[in-house]
Write a structure and sequence with these properties.
Chain lengths: 153, 860
């Protein structure tokens, strides 16, 4: 089956605020990664180097925030936020948070993008990787990890 | 504003727009196809910094510094490589998805030298193809990888263009490199854009149309309503009940009914102006389906009709009720099949302009340029119309009716301007006639040996907002409901109802896809009752040469159903022995219109100044490969070589009317007309060179003569020929998914075996969708609610192993024995799959798409 990579679902826009869902920069994922694939970026947010990641999932279990998941290597369009607060709160917490506005759901041609608990999620089984959601996301919360349709982070 | 690179050249874009619009409308890089503009289909795939992306997604302002590649920008070696690989593999049919597929191929091969099949499937999984079933595209990519590694492009494996040779199709290069023109690829000087304002209600009285604001908008050329129509408002294939524009006071029939045509200088003004046309309605309660339509107090869909019955057919031979009463085993069941959307990759588009001879010239994508001609002449009340087919990006029956052609013609006729009328994908899903949903009650009786004694059935269909081909589809559903078996007691009655749903019409299989599901499912159940295998019950009942079909026709020596069963037997036995859940089904499908209708094939071979023979037949190549078939016919039946022959796309002023690309008829009917023309040409070539014959026309025509339904003759010939098939489905017990499909098809004589395989693979995958997943849900307002990407079409990474086996069985005395294969490929698939699931879990499923399978849409 297709390769999978870890994804830290946080854009790291909340460094100076109090988003309760974001990456804490605790480094536990970095410490447990057997492949040296995770590092903290300039904002102190964990980032996965997909050239090194083997999708073992160790970091997924380790993350105290529960915001690391695996995504298909062929599915570069990802929701890089885990904030489940109501839109107003989520908007205040971070510049690049998902506010559950549902635009992704509306523009998704295949019914893959769905907002549940104020947070967008993409069903890879239905996703056509078109990136329409990423391009139309008013918050920049959905990213193209290839760095083509949006910047990577 | 942004500056980026397109095929290596720096471009600066001032107006922020989607990349697709910029590449097509400004740079005219028309290899980038506009299949949906909503991110779903993949036809506009380009490479951005080496990554496949849909051009309809990003906006130009966000592309600063990026490198965009379209197939126009491939290196010469790559162009040759992909043209060869796609041609050799037989991967190109309608061609609309192909440039996108080619760029996915390049992106993959730039990263991986020797990709596995799984990597290939993943690389193209986001791009839809509706013709090929992906099998040959995957093969093409494997081949391209190999040749790229070797660095050398060989000669095609087969170069003799005689019948039976799998030569590369003649339209491969123009489709791979994207320079072949579909109507949307034309950008004429001073061209306007036209589009229809459509009804807000499925059933309403139009009280008033206010056009003043729209007309006043700068850039609007015209707003046209029914009163401007110079000829007959109502058009239609057989029955003229399709309004070109609903007049004030008239009734709307569905949400697609056009009320006004807006014409503007550009597409943006057009969209603005459409919103400014204010229509006042008196909304009326709509008819949601046949149950409502048949109620005694039902609202009438048409003012002009007495009730909502669009067509009624009754077919009876022998004594079905009596035979069933005397049968040892009897099964009675109800079956239902859904609406299906054709989902061809190219949305409807027509371009019209006044030509140099004073004719309204229509550049069309349709299934018969002559049908478009007839209907447009009717609408304009003028003979001054010419139609020329462009490339057709798939049809499958969905491009037989007027959708945009007549509107384009009318606009040019009234404004004098060139115009492009194109449906958005959402409009396309609403407008063209769909596959009819059917509700069917069947009873079958068999003796103790499983020999069919009689079948009795009653069916009805929803034909929606206008007749289209509702009557003939119902008729074919009824005549073929018996299955390809030898028994003489058969009775069926069928009714098609008008409703306010979108129209239903022709769709690959033409009604037989529906009734075949019923009769074949019953036969599978009957086999179990009798205690024999599904294979055995078919072998015992299969129609054999010289025997009588339930319609009374004595079938010819070319009849090859038994051969398809015999060929599939080892596969079937092996799967059963391995304990795998396996399902089987057979089908027959007429080739040619039949039932006494005038079914003409016509072809002209004209020797032109270039000392080549040009083939002119008024018959559309909709992706099935008719051009290649006709060239192979000429090379086989004359002393000429491939290079002496030129295939000309169908037109209406040189190419004689050779009927619709419908009913699996072109290979046989036009093929025979072409063969007859070849006889005359061959005679002339005995004494003259092509140079001497310059300007000579060699004409061939063929009337496929048949008897009408219910003709008072002992053995009416309903159709000149039938194709036969057996298909088999094997499931993976662990996953419940399809492991493989085997499809054995008797085609008489395979003109181009690889093309035949491509038809089979595409038909099987299309009907896997029909069997397992595809839906076309319609809401309370009679509105189809799903977008293209939600129809449930199969994608490349989901298809099982498919074995397409082509059986040649000579004997048919026309068209060198070739029988059409277009439709039958899709017919037995669903019942074969249903039986396999029964073998897996013991549950008989009588509705499509099948319930409780891993393919079932979770979001329904």
């Amino acid at each position: 089956m297709e390769k999978r990579f870890a994804l830290v679902a946080c854009n790291g826009g909340c460094r100076n605020t109090d988003c309760g869902y974001g990456c804490l920069g605790c480094g536990m994922c970095q410490a447990i990664c057997p492949f040296d694939a995770i590092s903290l970026n300039d904002s102190g947010v964990a980032e996965v180097d997909e050239t090194k990641c083997r999708g073992c999932g160790a970091c997924v279990a380790e993350c105290p925030q529960g915001i690391i998941r695996l995504h298909g290597a062929g599915y570069p369009i990802v929701v890089k936020c885990s904030n489940q607060d109501l839109g107003k709160t989520a908007r205040a917490a971070c510049e690049v948070s998902c506010i559950g506005c549902g635009i992704c759901e509306k523009v998704c041609p295949s019914g893959a993008a769905k907002v549940t608990d104020n947070l967008s999620a993409i069903d890879e089984a239905l996703c056509l990787c078109c990136g329409m959601c990423a391009v139309k996301c008013p918050r920049g919360a959905i990213r193209d990890l290839r760095g083509v349709l949006t910047s990577r982070s | 504003m942004a500056t980026f690179y397109v095929n290596g050249n720096s471009v600066t874009v001032h107006k922020n727009q989607t990349l697709l619009r910029f590449l097509r409308d400004e740079l005219h890089l028309t290899s980038v196809k506009d299949g949906c503009s909503e991110g779903a289909c993949g036809a506009c795939t380009v490479l951005i910094d080496g990554e496949p992306c849909r051009a309809c997604v990003p906006r130009t302002d966000n592309l600063e510094g990026r490198h965009i590649l379209t197939v126009e920008g491939l290196s010469d070696f790559e162009k040759q490589l992909y043209t060869y690989a796609y041609g050799e593999a037989g991967a190109v049919q309608c061609g609309f998805c192909i440039p996108g597929m080619v760029l996915c191929t390049k992106a993959l091969l730039d990263k991986v030298d020797d990709p596995t099949e799984e990597q290939i499937r993943y690389a193209i999984r986001n791009n839809y193809c509706r013709c090929t079933g992906y099998v040959k595209i995957i093969k093409a990519i494997e081949l391209a990888a190999k040749l790229k590694r070797e660095g050398v492009i060989p000669a095609p494996s087969e170069t003799d263009w005689k019948l039976g040779s799998s030569v590369h199709r003649l339209d491969v290069e123009e489709k791979v490199l994207g320079y072949g023109k579909y109507p949307d690829d034309w950008y004429l000087p001073n061209m306007t854009y036209g589009s229809a304002v459509r009804s807000q209600y499925p059933r309403a009285r139009v009280l008033d149309i206010d056009m003043e604001k729209a007309r006043a908008l700068p850039g609007v050329v015209a707003v046209i309503t029914a009163q401007d129509i110079p000829g007959e408002n109502k058009v239609g294939h057989i029955k003229h009940d399709q309004y070109s524009l609903i007049p004030i006071g008239g009734l709307t029939h569905w949400l697609g009914d056009p009320i006004a045509l807006v014409v503007a200088e550009d597409q943006e003004t057009l969209e603005k102006a459409k919103k400014l046309v204010k229509v006042t309605y008196e909304p009326l309660p709509p008819v949601h389906g046949p149950e409502e339509a048949k109620a005694p107090d039902a609202p009438k869909v048409f003012d002009e009709e007495e009730n909502n019955v669009q067509a009624y057919k009754h077919v009876s031979r022998g004594d079905a009720a009596g035979a069933i009463a005397r049968s040892k085993y009897v099964i009675e069941k109800h079956f239902e099949t859904p609406w299906t959307e054709h989902a061809f990759l190219e949305p409807e588009c027509a371009v019209a302009y006044w030509d140099e001879d004073g004719y309204v010239r229509i550049l069309s994508t349709d299934q018969s340029s002559h049908t478009t001609l007839h209907e447009c002449k009717l609408l304009l009340g003028s003979e001054k119309v010419r139609v020329q087919n462009q490339l057709v990006g798939g049809g499958f029956g969905g491009k037989e009716d007027m959708t945009v052609q007549h509107h384009a013609a009318l606009i040019t006729y009234l404004t004098g301007r060139a115009v492009k009328v194109k449906l958005s994908r959402a409009e396309s899903l609403l407008i063209h006639p769909k596959r009819h949903p059917f509700w069917m009650d069947f009873t079958i009786g068999c003796d103790e040996n499983g020999i069919i004694q009689g079948v009795k059935a009653s069916v009805y269909s929803d034909t929606g907002a206008f007749a289209s081909l509702g009557g003939p589809v119902l008729e074919r559903a009824c005549t073929h409901a018996s299955g390809p078996y030898n028994y003489q007691n058969f009775e069926i009655e069928g009714t098609a109802y008008y409703t306010n749903n979108p129209p239903a019409g022709a769709f690959r299989g033409f009604g037989v896809t529906q009734t075949c599901f019923a009769i074949e499912s019953l036969l599978n159940e009957m086999a179990e009752k009798v205690g024999i295998s599904p294979w055995e019950i078919r072998y015992r009942n299969a129609i054999r040469p010289g025997q009588e079909l339930p319609n009374g026709q004595i079938v010819g020596v070319e009849t090859g159903l038994v051969e398809t069963l015999e060929i599939i037997k080892p596969f079937y036995d092996a799967a059963v022995a391995a304990g795998k859940p396996v399902g089987l089904a057979c089908a027959m499908k007429n080739s040619g219109v039949g039932v006494g209708l005038p079914d003409w094939g016509r072809c002209k071979l004209i020797v032109e100044k270039d000392e080549k023979v040009h083939i002119y037949a008024g018959a559309s190549c909709i992706g099935q490969g008719l051009g290649t078939v006709l060239v192979q016919m000429v090379v086989t039946n004359t002393p000429l070589e491939r290079d002496d022959v030129v295939y000309e796309r169908s037109n209406t002023w040189i190419a004689p009317d050779s009927g619709d690309s419908s009913g699996s008829r072109q290979t046989l009917i036009t093929g025979e007309a072409c063969r007859r023309a070849c006889e005359k040409l061959t005679e002339a070539l005995k004494e003259h060179t092509l140079k001497e014959l310059n300007g000579e026309v060699f004409y061939g025509e063929y009337l496929a003569k048949t008897d009408k339904l219910g003709a008072d003759v002992p053995h009416p010939v309903s159709h000149v020929a039938y194709g036969y098939a057996t298909q088999m489905c094997i499931l993976d017990k662990k996953t419940g998914r399809i492991e493989s499909m085997v499809a054995v098809h008797d085609v008489g004589k395979a003109v181009n075996p690889r093309s035949c395989e491509g038809q089979i693979e595409g038909g099987v995958v299309m009907s896997m969708g029909y069997a397992l997943r595809e839906q076309y849900p319609i809401d309370e307002n009679c509105k189809p609610i799903d977008r293209f990407g939600k129809l449930g079409l199969f994608r490349a990474h989901e298809i099982p192993d498919i074995q397409a086996i082509v059986v040649d069985k000579p004997g048919l005395d026309v068209a060198c024995g070739a029988i059409g294969i277009g439709e039958i490929t899709s017919i037995p698939t669903a019942p074969a799959i249903a039986e396999a699931y029964y073998q897996l879990d013991g549950k008989r499923r009588t509705r499509l798409p099948l319930e409780d399978t891993p393919y079932e849409r979770r979001d329904r």
